[in-house]
Amino acid sequence: MTKRLRVGVIGAGIAARHLSGFGWNPELFEVAVLCSLDGDRGRALCEEYKIAEYTQDVDTLFARDDLDIIDICTPPDSHFELSKRGIEAGKHIICEKPLYGSIADVDAMIKIVGSTDRFLMPIFQYRYGTGLQKLKYLIERGLTGRPFLTTIETHWWRGPDYYAVPWRGKWKSELGGGLLGHAIHAHDMLNYVHGACAEVFSHGTTLVNPIEVEDTATLSVKMENGSLAALSMTLGSRKEISRLRFCFSDLVAESVLDPYTMGRDPWSFVAGTEEHQARVDDALAEYKDEEDGYTRQFQLFHKAIMDDTKPPVTLEDARRSLELVTAAYHSHRTSKPTAMPISVNHPLYHSWLPETARE
Questions:
Q1: Which end of the chain has fewer CB atoms < 10 Å from its terminal CB, N or C?
Q2: Do strands 236-248 and 251-254 pair parallel, antiparallel, or not at all (unpaired)?
Q3: How many CB atoms lie within 10 A of CB 49?
């Protein structure tokens, strides 16, 4: 019989998306308690999602022995400490992006988790969009050919109202700008398809809002598999789009333009010949649709816990995404290409924050 895992959620913002994902998996999860300092939003979520308990005392969640999972949906600067406390309390952890504020923190958490039998899963739910999953399916079947070029556009709009929330737009609390908090999903999809990045040259600046962090950036990336990628991000696009385009020797895969569901169908897969197009179409006809987004990622996390296998998204995956952010910030500041991986000797290994924002 499938074990129903009990969850405690911390936060009342992005937590609503998580609660919807848990809600689509009622046989796998029961959200037993929600913790938030925002009483109005917290209690409203408890009512909407039929959560029996509400608290503002986070310490009680770690002390409970009837919770299997702590789900962290708080501002970024609190993620590491809450993750550490949860693992040390014997809980499995789900943590929203961006995971932590440095590669050093990720490496420290890898050691902490590795000394236990607990799992920590970073959130990258966009991986499970049906369109992107179809691309992975075609790659696994050898139908794409050699990768050449990937282009990714994250062109969204964030105005003054967005930054009226006190922790946003500040290095110390948000830990970064659009590269870290917005484009990170699309850039994770690059790593998910092609593996690790080898080098980046980046320009980043603040053009749209009077904030501390970047809201516009371009990145030129070399991948370890030999292909190239061109990435652009702005929070100043009045028409919001996200677009991913993967050029391989045997086909081109292109996403929909919807800014927040770009991983979902309908993607286009255009082959170089009629014969190969028929092979691609035949393969896609056999593709089995699954749930997507948080719903699918949570399903796979439950399976990993039950089967004692690694989570669907790992700390190493999160490290790879944050390496790109770290390297981009270093390139911004030095006006030079930055190589990856980021090792302990790198000047931004312990923090990419400007010196004035570090404690």
A1: N
A2: antiparallel
A3: 17
pLDDT digit string, tens, across residues 105-117: 999 999 999 999 9
Distance CA(139)–CA(193), nearest Å, equals 9
Decide: helix, strand or coil at residue 266. coil
Cα–Cα distance, 254 to 146 (Å, whole number): 16
Instruction: Report phi then psi at 201, rounded to 5.
Output: -120, 125
Checking if the pLDDT of 259 tops 60, the result is yes
Structural element, H or E, at residue 216: strand 216-223
Q: Residues 305-310: what's their mean pLDDT?
A: 96
The pTM of this model reads 0.94
DSSP state of 288: P
Residue type, 342: I
Cβ atoms within 10 Å of 129's Cβ, excluding its own? 23
Rounded-to-integer distance, Cα 328 and Cα 43, Å? 40
pLDDT for 108 equals 98
Tokens linked to 345:
């000797």
Residue 340 binned pLDDT confidence (cut-offs 50, 70, 90): very high
Cβ–Cβ under 8 Å, residues 93 and 118: yes
- Over residues 4-20, the mean pLDDT reads 97
Beta strands (DSSP E) in 249-315 are 251-254, 268-271
Nearest to 101 by CA among 124, 84, 80, 71: 80
Q: What is the pLDDT of residue 359?
A: 66
Q: Is 153 left (phi over 0), alpha (psi -120 to 50) or beta?
A: beta
Distance of alpha carbon 247 from alpha carbon 253, whole angstroms: 7
- pLDDT value at position 2? 75
Alpha-carbon distance of 219 to 231, in angstroms, equals: 5
- DSSP secondary structure, 51-90, as one string: -SEEES-THHHHH-SS-SEEEE-S-GGGHHHHHHHHHHTT
